[in-house]
Every structure is written in C-alpha cells, then in structure tokens.
Amino acid sequence: MPATTTDGSRPQRARLGVAVIGAGYWGPNLIRNFAGLGTVDLRWVCDRDVDRARGALVGRSGVRVTDSIDDVLNDPAVGAVAIATPAATHAPIARRCLDAGRHVLSEKPLACSTLDGEALVELADRRDLVLMCDHTYCYSTAVQYLHDLIASGEAGDLQYLDSVRINLGIVQPDVDVFWDLGPHDLSILDYILPADCRPVSVAAQSADPLGVGRACIGYVTLQLANGAIAHLHLNWLSPTKARTLVTSGSRLMAVWDDLAPAQRISVYDRGASLGAGDDRSSRHAALVSYRLGDMRAPALEDREALATMVTEFVDAIGSGRAPLTDGRSGVRILRLLEAIPDSLALGGAAVLLDDRAAPHRDQVETVVQNGRER
Amino acid sequence: MPATTTDGSRPQRARLGVAVIGAGYWGPNLIRNFAGLGTVDLRWVCDRDVDRARGALVGRSGVRVTDSIDDVLNDPAVGAVAIATPAATHAPIARRCLDAGRHVLSEKPLACSTLDGEALVELADRRDLVLMCDHTYCYSTAVQYLHDLIASGEAGDLQYLDSVRINLGIVQPDVDVFWDLGPHDLSILDYILPADCRPVSVAAQSADPLGVGRACIGYVTLQLANGAIAHLHLNWLSPTKARTLVTSGSRLMAVWDDLAPAQRISVYDRGASLGAGDDRSSRHAALVSYRLGDMRAPALEDREALATMVTEFVDAIGSGRAPLTDGRSGVRILRLLEAIPDSLALGGAAVLLDDRAAPHRDQVETVVQNGRER
Amino acid sequence: MPATTTDGSRPQRARLGVAVIGAGYWGPNLIRNFAGLGTVDLRWVCDRDVDRARGALVGRSGVRVTDSIDDVLNDPAVGAVAIATPAATHAPIARRCLDAGRHVLSEKPLACSTLDGEALVELADRRDLVLMCDHTYCYSTAVQYLHDLIASGEAGDLQYLDSVRINLGIVQPDVDVFWDLGPHDLSILDYILPADCRPVSVAAQSADPLGVGRACIGYVTLQLANGAIAHLHLNWLSPTKARTLVTSGSRLMAVWDDLAPAQRISVYDRGASLGAGDDRSSRHAALVSYRLGDMRAPALEDREALATMVTEFVDAIGSGRAPLTDGRSGVRILRLLEAIPDSLALGGAAVLLDDRAAPHRDQVETVVQNGRER
Amino acid sequence: MPATTTDGSRPQRARLGVAVIGAGYWGPNLIRNFAGLGTVDLRWVCDRDVDRARGALVGRSGVRVTDSIDDVLNDPAVGAVAIATPAATHAPIARRCLDAGRHVLSEKPLACSTLDGEALVELADRRDLVLMCDHTYCYSTAVQYLHDLIASGEAGDLQYLDSVRINLGIVQPDVDVFWDLGPHDLSILDYILPADCRPVSVAAQSADPLGVGRACIGYVTLQLANGAIAHLHLNWLSPTKARTLVTSGSRLMAVWDDLAPAQRISVYDRGASLGAGDDRSSRHAALVSYRLGDMRAPALEDREALATMVTEFVDAIGSGRAPLTDGRSGVRILRLLEAIPDSLALGGAAVLLDDRAAPHRDQVETVVQNGRER
C-alpha cells in the first residue's frame, strides 16, 4: 500500500493522503477536521454534486473536487477514505475502497445489515486495512469520562443505564427512529460497557401514532450479562429536547446531560446497599437503604469530539492497530439494530443475541416463539 | 343504612359519621382532611397500636380511639370507613365494612388481585354502597388540568404518554417497584385517557441488580386502543428524583413536572403533522415537519389533592353516585398490574388485556406463548 | 437566678423552664422545637389572643396558656423566654424579661434601633444573662457549610458576595423591604464574614413603583474591609422567586441556592488569578485568566435549622457562654439597617459605619464627605 | 453622494457598496452578514493585518483586501463603511468616513466620550448621512418582543428592570467591566424604555478585589423618570454565567434568559396591585396583594440578530431615515457610561443626567448636592 508508506527522507510524502466522499450534512465537518490535522494531506472531496463539494471546501486551496470515486481511487497518494454518503451506500463504497487497498472511515451505520458489515470486517482484516466507524459521541470528553469511571472500577458494579434521546424533529423518509437515533446510544453503550456487561438480549416497543409507516417513538431494553439493564427512549415527537444518560453503579451514579454545558456530567456518591442486618440468610427480605454522599461535576476539557475521532483514525493507520470504534463495534451495533424488528414482531419479547450471532442461523431464534395467530 | 340517613329537622345528625382505620403513614393525612370537612363527623381512629392512633389525632377532641374494627362497625353513627392499613389487608377489611353496610374508601391498591377487587365491586353494587379508591394524584389540580385538556379535545388525538417516576429510595420489603410506584401512574392514566384510548396490552421489563428478589427497576409499555403508546419508567435506584409525565397530542403537548412548583404544567402548542405535499397517495413517504408555537404554563390553584379527594367521597355518598375513582377504576388498575408478571415471564412480550378480562380464563393468554425453554 | 439553677439530686428540676411569648406566624415553630427538646420544660405560651396560644399547642399537655407576661415572669421555674411578637414590641418585652432575670431569645430584629439594641446588650451583660437573636438561617447546614469554607481558609480571600432574595409577595404594612427581607441576608453575612472582611460602609438604592410609601425593591452594597464587596437584591415584586448567595473567594466559589433541594450548595474550584507574566511591575496591565476546575455539591444533612438554633440557646445558657448569634450580632445588623435610609437620603452614597459607631455623632458621615468640587 | 445613488436603468449599480474596517473578533461576523445580503456589494475588508483580513474572507471572491483606509475611501463605489476596530479608534475612523461622505455603522461604543459622540452625530446630520451603532442585542427577537410588550401597553406601567450579565471571564486590559459589559444592557434599555421612563440618574458601585486597577464587578442603578428603577449586575468573576433581564410591569412581568434556548422569554400574568379597599385616602397603609395568572413563553423566530441589524442599516440608508439604533442612541449610552465614574467618586451617589446634558456644565451635579445637613 504505497499510500501509507512513509519515507523518512521525504517528510512531505509521509503525510497520509485522505479523501472525503460525501459533502452533504456531515461531510463538511470531516473536511474541516481533516484539514485541521497537520499529519494529513486532504486531497479530494467527492460528491455527486460537484458544486456542493466545492462549497464544502469554503475556499480551501489544494483540495481537488470530483463526482467520481474512480478519480479518488486512481490517486496513489490517497491512503484513506472517509465516507459520509447516504446510509444505503456506505457498504458498497467501503467495499470498493477496501478492495482498492484504502483504509476506510465510515459514517454510521457501517452497513444496512450485519452480514454486509461482517463482510467488510473480513475484507479489511484480509487486506490488513483499518476499518473504522465514525461513532463520534464515543470521542467526546463526557463519554470518555464515563468510560473511565466504569473501566477503573470506581463506579462499582453496573446496575442500570437509562438513556433518553428525544426531540421534536423531522420524521426521516427512509429510516425509523431506531436506525436514526439508536446508533448514537448503542455505540456509546458498546464503548462504555465492560466485557462482562455486554447485552444478551434486545427487546423493543414502538409506536407510529402519525401513521407514517415507521416507528416515530421507540423504547429499547437490553438485558446485560451481569444482570443489569439498559433502556433507551428514542422519540421524534417530544415537545422537549433531552440528551441524557444515567449510568448507575453500586458505588457511583453518573448523570450525563449533553444539553447542560455548565454541568454536563454529575457523579453522585450515592448507592443502594443491602441492609446491614445480621440475618444474612434472609437476604431476599432485606431492606435496602441509600447512602447520601457528595456530588461532583468534573471540569471537562472543551474540545471537539470529531477532532479526537479523526486523530484516532490517523493514529490507528499509522500504528497498524485497531481503532477504538473499529468495524467490529459497527457490526455489534448492527446486530442490536437488527434484533429490534424481531422483538417488535414478537410483541416486544426479548430476543437473545447469542443465537443471532451463530453463523448459520436459518431463522430468528427468540426467547419466545410461535403461537402468534392473533 | 341509618348512618347516611339525613334528617332535615335535625341538621346536626345529617353529618356523615366517618372512621379511619390505620394510623400509620397515610392515615394521619386522612384524619386531618376528614377533620377539616364541616360536613363530616370524624368519630373513630382504629389502629392495632392504640397509641399510634392517639398520636395521629394530635389533640383533636371528640374522636374515639380503638384497636377493634368491631367497635367501629358497632357504632351506628358511622356511615363510612376509610382504610389506610397495609396493602394485604385492604380487601378483607373493605369486605367487612361493606358487609356491615358502610361506604368504603380504600387506599391503593384496592386489593391484591383482580378477582378480589371484582368481588368488592360486586358487593358494593349489591348493597348500593360507595366503594372508592384513594387515587390521590387524580385529584391534584395538575392531573385535572391534563384530564380537561384531553377531554375537551384541545390536545387533539393522543400520540404518546411518557411517565418517569424515579428516585433513590428504600427497597420495599413486601412489594416490587411495579406495585409500589406503578399504581400512581396507572391511576392517572386511567383517569385522563378517554374511552377510545384505553390500554389494550401490557408489556414490561425489569431488573433486580441488587439481587434482592424483586424488581427495583421497571419499564411498562401500554399499547392504547387508538394506536398511541404509554410508557412508564419506575425506579428505586436513581440518583436523581423525577416525577414527570409527557402527554402528547396532535395539537398540544403537555409536560407535567411535579417537582417544579413554579411551572408544574407546560403546554406546548407544537405538533407534528404530515407534510402538506400534494402527493396524498404516497402517505408513507411523507415527511413530517413540526410547527413551532407558544408555550403556556397555567396558574394552578394551590389546594391539597387529598382535600378534594375526601370531598368527592362525601359528595358521592350524599348524592348516591359513583365517585370519580370508583372500585371499577381500582379493578382496572389491578388488571394492569397483574399483567406485568405475565409479560415479564414472557420476556417482555405484550400481554393482551381483552383476554384477561374474559370471565373464565384458564390460562394466561398472551400474544406469544410457550416455547420458553431457555 | 433560680430558674437556671440545676440540682443534681433532682434531675427533673434541672430542665430549663421555657416560655414562648407570641403565637402568631413564628411562635408555633418555636413551640414545636422547644417541645421537642428533652432538656427543656416548655411551661407557658403567652399571646394577647389566648385561643391562638391554645391552638398553637395542638393538644400538647402540660403547657399553660396566658395573655399576661406577668404570669410568665411570676413563674420561678421559667428560666428563659423566647419572644416572637410583632417587631415593635421585641425590645420592651426583652427588657422586662431581662429585668426579671430571664435569658432571652428574640426574633429578628432585636430592636427597632441600634440604641435600643445596645441597651439590651448592656442589660444582659450586667445581669449575666444570655441574650440571643433568632437568626435562623445561620443555623442551616448550608450556611454553616459556607461559614466553614471561609473560616478554614479553603475558599481563599473573599472577593465578593452577591445575594438575591426576591419573590412576588405581600407588601408589608409596617416595614419596608429592607427591614422585612434584609435581616436574613445581613445576619448570614455577619456570621460567615471573617473579622477582616467586616462591612465598612453601606450604600442603598430603592424604588416604590406602586407608590405605597415604602421601598418595595431594594439594593444594598457593603464595601468590606478587605476590598471585597457584598451586594443584596431584595424585592417584593419579582415574578420569580430566588434565594441565592454567591460567595466568591480566590480559591473556591460557592453558590447557595436555597430553592434547589437536590443541589443546595455548589462549590466551584475556579478562580481568577493575575497573569503569571514576569513583569510584576506592570501589575495593572496584567490580564487575568480563569482556571477551570471541578464542581462539587456536598451532601448536607437534612435537619431543621430551628432545632439547631434552640439547642444553641439552651447550650449557651447551660454553659454560660455567648451564643453564636448573640445580642451583639443583633446590634451589628441594626447598625447596617439604620444606615440604609441615610444612604438613600444621600442619593445612594456609601455611609461609613465606623463613624456611625461613634457614641456622639452629630451628623451623617459619609465617604464622600470631602473633595466634592471636582 | 454617488455611493448611494441608485440608477433604475442599471440595477447592478443600485447595490450599496460596503467596506468593513477591522477583521478581528467582530469583523468576520459583519463580513459574513453583509456578504449574505443580496442588496449589498461587499467590496473591501480593511485591517492593519492584511492576512487577517484575507482569512476573515474564508475564500469569498470579489472582495478586495487592504491595510489602508484611503484605499477604501478612494473607491467611489463604496457608499457605507462598517467599523469593527478597537474601541479607541471608532470615533476617528467614523469621522474620516463621514467626512468622505460615507454612511457609517460603528461597533459599540460609538466613541470614548460623549463629546466625541455628539460631534459625530452633528457631522452626520450636516452631511445627511446615516450614523448607526451596532447594538446587536436590540435586533434579537427576544429584545424586540420585550420592546413590543412595553410599547403596546400590554405590560402596563413599568415598575423595575433587573439585569444580570455575569460570567467567569478574562479581565480586559484596557476597559473596566462597566465599559466591557455595560453597553449591552444600556443599549437594550435605551431601546425598550418608553420616552416617559428614561433614566434620570445613574448610581454605581464597584469592586476590584484582584487589585488590577479597574472594576471587575459593577452594579449600576438607574432611576427612571416614572419612578421605576433599573439595576445592572456586571461581573467578570462569577462562577456561573447568567444573561437575564427581568422587566416588570403593572400587568405583565417578563423574564428574558438568553441562556435558555427552549424558553428564552417567560411572560407572567402576575401583578402587584393596591388593595381594593374602599378607603382610598389611606393609600400608604394599603396592603398589596398579588394576582396569580398564567405564564406564556412565546415561540421566537430563530434568526440571527446581526442579520436584522445589517438589514436595518441598509434600509435606513436606502430610505434616508434614522436607523433604530442611531448615533443619538449611541450618545445616550455614552452619557450613562460617563456618569458611572462620577457616581463612584461620590461613593455611589446618584448623578443626575439632566445636568450632565447641559452644554456648559462646570461641575458634577448630583441629586444630593444640597440639603445634606440633616
């Protein structure tokens, strides 16, 4: 892969050549952040609408514009491609780029199905290329703080996570509320949940009170391996806007409110613990009392998550390691998203994920099945 | 029923004689409110612990204290009994009182099972007595405002209701979080939902991350007859306290925040509506845009819900009509509560309520059944 | 003083006999708290309206009721008197009680003038009696936390204090907004300000936009001895209610919001500091940058300030020491309150307190006395 | 003035030629907004630092860059100049532009002294040119809503205004907190106060607890002609950030919270009114009771104030009328700012504005000038 080869004697050539495909809603943010990285040479912006591509450059010089992905892939100096096109095109474009030996950063979702996502992961592995998902929230200082709180053991055993992501918004024409808003929360959970707390089942409820043919309101429940629970409220029809995540551990409980710039994270030193009665045998009858403790709101550095994300992409390429939100995390999220309609079809019954992960699965295996002649 | 007979020539005897049974947590509030009613003669406070009964009177004179329900029922001047004893005793005590020809006000829940509740309703009907549930929240000015907003048609078609009732509290020794906190929300919904929006199914998810043997965190989803959805979040382990209900209609959306005394109800004149495109045939592809409008926070009268509730009880007795929150509403709530463990046993699948209401039901009928060999 | 004599052999008689004079708005709270103290024998409630006195007892036995202060003072078992009568009567009643050899707890204000207050202090000193002001806020856990934050040096050098005490309320018929609301804030400042930060001058602005003949809106500025500033906003006409105090030190800044039960105190580890430039000579040109740090909200014990206050009164009597909010603090507050109309008469110019404290002051001395011919 | 001449037959030339002088903090915002106006031909950006000027253009074509004001003024197609240079240079640059027959938009403050500001006004009048101050806040939808609420009479008689503009910020090297933050609030008041509520006096208090040689904390009180009061709290050292303005009228009270995007304006239908007692003679003894009413939060259009401001500038030029925030309003604000140090020198005594406005004023006239021998 000449594109990523570095040559000590010619430091200019050492910079990673990058192309951004898609200059719509998200592309300009990628352009701005790649352009801000000294270690990268932003070479192309590709969009079906060349004028839009040019507009996204706001006068930056030295970046070429095209409506052809071939132009991008024919440039040997391009080592990595960032994809910010409509969701249905992510996987096909990623495949072309990987086939052409380029590292790939894909906007969420990685693909429209788990199978397609797995194929991309396999292809990237075979070609020894970086495949990364742009799960931007995972690179925010707030989510990284939550991650560390759990990973360090400070928070104690996880008890529950409750996420609310609601607002009065536009009903998307092509996806339902689960695919529109869910990837944000699912990627955050995928990042902060430790290995022993992975989701084992997915249950969902939804409503389409406008009769538009897709869910506008969705609730998702994940049972976690350690007995904890995670719950999402996703809603396009809410009069109020909220972006909160409660992460409750046996020692610390954290509330993340992404709309409260002055107090984004509040960590409560409160916990529920079993009564200290001497009758240890009657555990089930024990009362639980709560401890009151101090709250702290850590000062979080004010930096853009997207800048950290593109840096991670470039670093992963440079060191040949998997990035934090690699293709595998993208596949795990697809697996969760695909389980949702299965649960809905079962009246909201929890769908086991283990069965779904099995390689040759003929049919949807669920915790409940059949007998659905209503 | 001499107790409720009124005699125009002797107006003093016209006052309804009342007894309160149970002087624990809730009883003193009933005592205070009945004592404050000029139309009532509070005659007895009955509690196993006579000292507690006396203490609950805080020096009020003219009220007798006893530990025997017989004393109460042997007093012909007692026309009505209010029950505020532990939950398991509500139904047996109510039955004794109804059998003895007394009107009954019962703390929630009305009984521990739908069958027991139905038997009480039938008994009260047969004896032509008032049987009322103390669903206090329904008598708050906030809930009455919400009720009127819906009943008048102002709010438009209901789209969804989302309730959050969470705090860091004591894990109850005898009931789970559904039976502890759920009756509040379910009785509120029972009151404000119009006849064409009644729940048709119940689904639930729960967690017991402390391993205390009962749910400490619960999520309940009700599918409503008109296609809308209602969702409850009930939680004993939350670091923050919340008491909110969003009631979203096609015209108005209301947020009730019971912990915001200065702005308890916010009514948003915002709605989501189908795009006004001319292509009416492609309804499913239609985008929904939102309208922005004013918000208003009505000034709510500052009166105690419990005072309104006891007044309703006395008025219903006086006029021989069913009270707002009669025994039937209590039974409807029991039916919802009883469906929760059935749904949990099915992995969270929605349990149809119609089947449950059938008179001779041998087994739990659900939207999904069997095949549960996990 | 037989009333406070303790007799080891007859422990029952060791309890301090207490009388409460005034059973209106505040008296019942004093009655409840004295009655809750095991070390005290509440003997009398005295009010012009004997029925009101009786009502305030809500059935407590063993407490006598009277409309005559003589009855109270003729009871040798009464060692201490708490006064909760209208403001104008505080000083005369306190004088009678002190003259009769009783310890005195007075509701704020201690008197209607500094001179009257000083006379009470002198009388109490001469008779070796405790004279205490019921500055209840000083005994709240929040204010005690603020006090300790400053006294321990943790907060650093004080920079400014800003208090807002506003609401939509009743315009008092006898006092202006300064005398109605000001004593709360002034007593809090008197308690938490260290000796080197005492007020040196008082300035005030006011408005009477309703034309009722007294200030309904008031602003008070205190220049403190160390160069810091304290400012009060007092307002009867505000659409919103606020009870906040910002206490800003060079190391820590604390915000007390008395209406936020879940986060009453927030301590910010932020400070402003002079630029670290080496050019120390150009100090005035130095930029100040701010440091960002964590915030913490300490868990405050949930106890009633009034209970702590009456305990302090009884303890001070028992140990013969001055209470925390003694008569001298009451006089200091009167001195501040009396300076307000003087400043108003001067268009809001700051009035020096040192001069005011001088015994024979002929005229108002202000900081602007001289050199006004610019 | 050829620059503003319009020629119907050559519509291209009808567009107003505009130059922006100063490309530092504020200039780029002006550039972006003028460039967005179809009716304007943005021709020059002028800055001492030509690279900065070029950077501010972010690739916009057809705009020339220079470090010489002469280049700008020698271009006959330039009809109007917007000045966003350091404060001390506003007046000299504005004078050059007016002398050269160009309309002028000046960033606040208009000048560093009232005299300089008045000279500019006079010059613009003489040359029949538009002189406008960029008081951006006055063009926000929130302030315009407040203005209309008062101007329409809906709010009733003004009672008080209370503004808080505080944050933890950088201590400016050249101005104190009054000149840094005060112009925002003073220009808002100048815009929304009706003619009969103009300020009649200014009083101020300040502190410099860091010893940096200028006020970091400031309080300003304006007595208004109708007996109402306006008060500003300006603060560079606050741990919390606030941008609120309470505007209280006899009928409506409005709270503007510029940091609450979802509820920027709250209008309370509460008022204080004199008691309805029949004894009109005893007005001063009357109690005031408050009425409780609904609150409403109007939906405010989401548009940029700056865009409205530049449109107003262009419209005023086109129609030959005075703009909303003309030079005269700039002078009124300078007059208020200049009174602040005078009041500070007098210990905070109110300084009368009428006297200050007199042409030949020898000395500071204050409300407390006479009659101080009380």
Write the layout of secondary structure elements.
The structure is a homotetramer of 374-residue chains.
Chain A: H1 11-14, E1 16-21, H2 27-35, E2 40-46, H3 50-56, E3 64-66, H4 69-73, E4 80-83, H5 90-99, E5 103-107, H6 114-127, E6 131-134, H7 141-151, E7 158-168, H8 177-192, E8 199-207, E9 217-224, E10 229-235, E11 237-249, E12 253-257, E13 265-268, E14 271-274, E15 288-291, E16 295-297, H9 305-319, H10 327-345, E17 351-352, H11 353-357
Parallel strand pairs in A: 1-2, 1-4, 2-3, 4-5, 5-6, 7-10
Antiparallel strand pairs in A: 7-11, 8-9, 8-17, 9-10, 11-12, 12-13, 13-16, 14-15
Could you characterize the architecture of this molecule?
The structure is a homotetramer of 374-residue chains. Chain A has helices at 11-14, 27-35, 50-56, 69-73, 90-99, 114-127, 141-151, 177-192, 305-319, 327-345, 353-357, and strands at residues 16-21, 40-46, 64-66, 80-83, 103-107, 131-134, 158-168, 199-207, 217-224, 229-235, 237-249, 253-257, 265-268, 271-274, 288-291, 295-297, 351-352. With 374 residues, the first copy, chain A, is an alpha/beta fold. A nine-stranded mixed sheet of chain A has the order 16-13-12-11-7-10-9-8-17. A six-stranded parallel sheet of chain A has the order 3-2-1-4-5-6, with helices on both faces. The longest helix of chain A is centred in the last third of the chain and has 19 residues, at 327-345. Chain A starts with 10 loop residues before the first helix and ends in a 17-residue tail after the last helix. Chains in contact: A-B, A-C, A-D, B-C, B-D, C-D. Chains C and D meet through strand 7, strand 8, strand 9, strand 10 and strand 11 of C and strand 7, strand 8, strand 9, strand 10 and strand 11 of D. Strand 16 (295-297) of chain A pairs antiparallel with strand 16 of chain C, so a sheet runs across the interface.
